[in-house]
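Re: weekly structure request thread

Next one in the queue (123 aa):
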Amino acid sequence: AVAIAKARASLPVFWASYEAPKPSEGGHSLKVRFPYGTNNGEHIWMAEVRKLADGLYSGRFANAPVHLPGKHVGDLVSFREADISDWMFMRNGKIVGGETIRPMLKSMPKAEAAALRARMETP
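Done, posted below.
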């Protein structure tokens, strides 16, 4: 919850780069919460993010949904900004953002966590 709050608070950084990326920036992705069941939600990274009309956004599932029957990697879906739980993009080959990735580093094997930290602009 803390990582999501931090990511949502810094969304303007994402949108600024999305709207006017520097030559060294690309791969803009959003992590979006999709509800399932009565009180659950699955957070999935979205690629090919686009702003639509009426406060909607679209993107393609960048990883396989587990709890969304009939949905697959690459499927195009729409969502609202309130559903965004994280963001990231690449700058000079490093991951910018990705706040929800950081808490998971503690539970990863040390070598894997170290490799991921090395790919993050601010580990």
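Residues 25 and 91 are 4 Å apart (CA to CA). Residues 11-19 form the longest helix (9 residues).
Next request, please.
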